[in-house]
Amino acid sequence: MKFKNFVTSPRLENNAFLALMITVSLAFAWILQPFFGAVFWGAVIAIIFMPVHAWLLRRWKQRRTLAALVTLLLIVLIVVLPLSLLTGMLVKEGAALYQRLQSGETDFARYFQQVVAVLPTGLHDLLEHFGLTDFKELQARITEAIGRGSQAIASQVYSVGQNALDLVVSFFVMLYLAFFLLRDGMGLSRRLRVAVPLDPEHRHHLSAKFITVIRATVKGNVLVAATQGALGGMAFWYLGIQGALLWAVIMGFLSLLPAIGAALIWLPVAIYFLVTGATWQGVALIAYGVLVIGLVDNVLRPILVGKDTKMPDYLVLISTIGGMAIFGINGFVIGPVIAAMFMAVWDLFATAREEALAEQVAPDAGKAEPPAP
Fold first, then answer.
1. DSSP secondary structure letters along 329-349
2. Half-sphere exposure of residue 355, counting CA atoms within 13 Å on the CB side?
């Protein structure tokens, strides 16, 4: 009898439905896994350009499809085309650098030898102790490293060629998804908020936090990286350093790491200038790197990223580095989003607990003891 009650109970039906919902959700995520990057950036692009789409909707009397198409065209013009042109220029710069390395015009062993030759005796002895002053051996190591790097680059290029169809498919999946998220995003967002079993106030707070962090992180980090890369590239071009565009892009990419970034490139170059007698170039590059390039990171990033996300700088740094270590380039968005949601959830929990404790204390305080007879 009890078994019959159990198999017909609403609790079993609810648990079975919950298990089914979790199972199909995980299966759906598994299906999307090969296109994770395309789906992720399609959603990010839709979130960032949603205000533009909303503005167009107001002007064109809710013509959602037309507004979404125009917004997508703006995305292609503002984001896709400049990135494509920059990629083409980078391929050209990288090929030129590879040819200079092969011909010996660019010889890092010679640069290293010039630096070591002017080092103080104590530091020279320390390098000699570790076997770092044997230039023939160093030349062999560098040549071997360049060979391995060249093979790796060649294999990557071959892999890209072999997987060109996958890249094209992923690219169009991203744009296709962005279009439909722009057109139908508001309705889908409302549907998801209703489906989440949380208090409406909490749902609104968490969804607003999620969108704010994504917009602030992408716009802030990309703007800071582009600014630092451009400033560093202009400095390298002015100082006559070959491959300024390539180094600018590398500095911009490294600038995604807060407080570290571009200095990994311009500081060794400045040190090389100093130890090889180009004193004014070295001093100027250090001053420019600290006062101009570094100032962008120290001033602009907290304003664009930390202010909107209401996250301390150290948490932005740690979550960005951790996110990139786990998720690759996508991690510079995913890391801060997870950190911000962590803070928001625990803040909601602490606030609710404080309110509950205050409600418990209030009735007890209102109960006065009866007067003694």
1. GGHHHHHHHHHHHHHHHHHHH
2. 6
Q: State the Cα–Cα distance between residues 260 and 298, nearest whole angstrom.
A: 11
Q: What is the pLDDT of residues 62-82, one digit of tens each?
A: 788 888 899 999 988 988 888
Buried b (16+ CB within 10 A) or exposed e, 165-174: eeeeebeebb
State CA 12 to chain mean position distance.
Answer: 43
User: Is 159's pLDDT higher than 60?
Assistant: no
DSSP state of 177: H
Measured CA angle at 333 (ends 328, 336), to 5 deg: 110
- Other Cβ atoms within 10 Å of 232 Cβ, number: 31
| The token pair that represents 115 in the structure block | 């630096």
| Residue 104 phi, psi (nearest 5) | 90, 0
Q: Which pair of structure tokens corresponds to residue 76?
A: 């292609």
Rounded distance, CA 253 to CA 222, Å? Answer: 9
CA 235 to chain centre: 25
Residue with tokens 């700088």: 313
* Terminal alpha carbon distance of the chain: 60
Letter string b/e over residues 284-307, b meaning 16 or more CB atoms within 10 A of that residue's CB:
bbbebbeeebbebbeeebbebbbe
pTM for the model: 0.68
List for the chain the helix, strand, coil content (%; round to 5). 85, 0, 15
* Residue located via tokens 């590239």: 233
Nearest by Cα to 320 from 232, 265, 259, 251: 259
Closest CA to 214 of 330, 295, 355: 330
Domain boundaries, the chain: 34-195, 196-351
Q: CB of 274 within 8 A of CB of 116?
A: no
Q: How confident is the model at residue 87 (pLDDT cuts 50, 70, 90)?
A: confident
CB 240 within 8 A of CB 232: no
Which of 66, 55, 44, 51 has the alpha carbon at shortest distance from 174?
44
